[in-house]
Amino acid sequence: MMVEAIMALALIAVTAGLILLLTLQRNILRSGLRQLPAFDRLRQAIGLAVENGTRIHITLGKAGIASSTSAAGLAGLTTLERIARVSSISDRPPLASSGEGTLTLLSQDTLRAAYRQMNQLELYDPHRGRLTGPTSFSYIAGALPIADGENVSAHLAIGNFGPEIALLMEAGEQQEAFTLAATDSLSAQAALFTSSQETLIGEELFAIPAYLNSGAVYTASLQVQDILRWGVIVVIVAGSILKLLGVV
Fold first, then answer.
1. Full domain range(s) for residue 81
2. DSSP assignments along 39-91, one per residue
3. C-alpha distances out from residue 144 to 11, 74, 102, Å
4. Which residues, 6 or more positions from 30, have their beta carbon under 8 angstroms from its beta carbon?
5. Domain total in the chain
6. Could you tell me the CATH number of the domain that includes residue 164?
7. What pLDDT digit, counting tens, does each position of 127-164 carry?
């Protein structure tokens, strides 16, 4: 147990060190991101919404901040903050919906913080961070009117969802809006493949803030994910070779 604890602490220290180092190396970070068509379309959709005076809807899921699936919701909140700043000159600021109380409060606080940083606190409206329902289906049912009556041109579903999230994406499609989804739920991913224009898989969920230029630390964390992934691959391959040679 002591050895495992030491190894875990060492991994945390190495990860933190790499993130700090890469955060300081901004030139390396900007050239290290892979080209992904989904993020190109997302940036285009944000730009068109600002230009045309339409609204962006970000739905954050139903995972409470204290749950084991809260990381997906936090990625959604970071995305909300960035979009709020980028679209601060738009006639229709972004709208956030969620299916859990603490996530709703955090979305309201995120919007307030974004406008405060832009010195445009008068744009803040707590009604733009909405709790649309406390259960899975009531959450989606409460979010459906947003697709029909809020002049939304882009729906972003970023968080923990059930398969019912496909209903909201279908509603967006019927209004000819851009739809992008990213979730940590396998059942929701399966449903979203047939209902969303762009569906992000795996760790691409946590790459959204980096691709939206939310800050150097997000890009650094994405780079560290790749480094650690290659490290695991090297260890597995080396262990297999040593096993075949009878060394271990």
1. 35-214
2. HHHHHHHHHHHHHHT-EEEEEEES--TTSTTHHHHHHHHHHHHHHHHHTTTSS
3. 44, 22, 21
4. 219
5. 2
6. 3.40.50
7. 999 999 999 999 999 999 998 888 999 999 999 999 99
